[in-house]
Amino acid sequence: MRYVLGIDLGTSAVKALLMNEKGELVDESVRSYSLIHEKVGYSEQHPQDWISSVREAIEEITARFQEDVSNIVGLSYSGQMHGLVLLGDGNEVLRPAILWNDTRTTEQCAQITETVGLENILRITKNRVLEGFTLPKILWVQQHEPEIYRKVKKFLLPKDYLRFAMTGELHMDYSDAAGTLLLDIEKGDWSKEIIAKLGIDPEICPELVPSTYKVGMLTESFASACGLSPATKVYAGGADNACGALGSGVISKGKTMVSIGTSGVMLTFEESKTEDYHGKVHYFNHAITDSYYTMGVTLSAGHSLSWFNDTFAKEESYDELLSEINDIPPGSNGLLFTPYIAGERTPYADSNIRGSFIGIDAIHTKKHFAKAVMEGIVFSLRDTLEIFKSSGKVIEELISIGGGAKNQHWLQMQADIFNATIYKLKNEQGPGIGACMIAAVGSGIFKDFAMAQEACIQIGEKYEPIPENVKKYDELYNIYTQVYRQTKALNEQLKQYR
Ligand SMILES: Nc1ncnc2c1ncn2[C@@H]1O[C@H](COP(=O)(O)OP(=O)(O)O)[C@@H](O)[C@H]1O
Ligand SMILES: O=C(CO)[C@@H](O)[C@H](O)COP(=O)(O)O
User: Fold this and answer.
1) Would the CB of 294 count as within 6 Å of ligand 2?
2) Tens digits of per-residue pLDDT, 86-134?
3) Mind giving me the DSSP string for 12-74?
4) Which domains can be identified in the chain, with CATH numbers?
5) Which ligand is nearest to the CA of 384?
6) Which residues form the Carbohydrate kinase FGGY C-terminal domain (predicted)?
7) Do the beta carbons of residue 377 and residue 418 sit within 8 Å?
8) pTM for this one?
9) I want to staple 346 with a disulfide (CB 3.0 to 4.6 A). Which of 62, 219, 296, 435 is the partner?
């Protein structure tokens, strides 16, 4: 029997999945790592932590593997998007990686928009300039750390650096490159115009490849450190949201998924690059050649719940914290939360906005706050659903993935707030499954992603909207949508005290 490994390099942890040639998941392991928040708005990680965590996660799987490890024929990746890894002359890492949820680059975003022009940016990249994307981070290093910038020979994204550490080969795949704001989406190449206008050395951009491209084999040293065969073939992989889309079957028109990971994502398949959302949602290349997807991002989705848990209920597991939320009616007895605890992206591209609890009453207890946090996160994802609907899309079914899909009440809440049928996967790790599918298609186990989807994706429970909850949540959503406007100016005044 042949096997493939999928490595999902997430924000909070790396998850390694082992899949057999029938598309069944046979083993998995997880290793967590931390985020560094040196200042408000900063979010970094040490690339070395990714490498050691991945090595340990694979080692755990190979130690349990009962067959010859050469039966693990291929591996691929799903990676947290946009994070900037800078390499010097000898491919050494020059500074910690600046991540997707780092919002220090508001000034650089304004400079890019002014220098390149918003119309040009939208025409070339199909996206607006946002703090989370990679290009503003490159300019930030250029301006604030010129001694480091002078040494830069290549820039990579997180999973590309991981792949380099495992193979010695430097590449970037199109689905992840789309999130740099340097890719000309129509031409499928680095944008010479943006690069020239911003005075960036084109040599720092890595070679672009498709997700199923075979970049090479594992280095002898990495293979022996994690117990794999050095003949294991390595395929490029994709952005975590592209892989999440693969892993939840969003590979054809009309398919939509919602993910509550550290961030929150509402994502739908786009057949072509010609739809125009005027940058209101992100428009990126899929991991399938010549396909695209659009998505809106809630910066702190699962992160809002993990923040609440860490800050107010550290001793409790998620299951303990959420055990009584179903005793509370929709709307948490008048308590409303906006999940802008680290700024927001969709629909408000605003790095300064912060979250609120509105309507705190003496009757509210910890479980009300926990439920309000979950509701606020889903309201925020509904903002993107409304953008899709206003462009004429009909979305009646969604696949829900990510850590948030582990909680059945949260899944029901999604059905009620989106007024749509929610399907859960048997294993909620969509991006990891997508990474396995890339390795399986790359190594020829499946002819294409349609065949891989048939074999690898197993739908679990189904959640139907409950009409009285839908009605109540519609009313509450109307109140929710007013909070941003009404708290924006207050947060501007509060900024100096952060
Ligand atoms: N048992 C659970 N119940 C509800 N939510 C959970 C549970 N476990 C994890 N989560 C949520 O999922 C988030 C992590 O999701 P995950 O997809 O693993 O993140 P990432 O890929 O960004 O590292 C946590 O921040 C938390 O909000
Ligand atoms: O910034 C984005 C997408 O644009 C995030 O979705 C990151 O890709 C991180 O994802 P998770 O760790 O939350 O899955």
Assistant:
1) no
2) 999 999 999 999 999 999 999 999 999 999 999 999 999 999 999 999 9
3) SEEEEEEEETTS-EEEEEEEE---B-SSTT--EE-HHHHHHHHHHHHHHHHHH--S-GGGEEE
4) 3-241 (3.30.420.40)
5) 2
6) 257-442
7) no
8) 0.95
9) 296
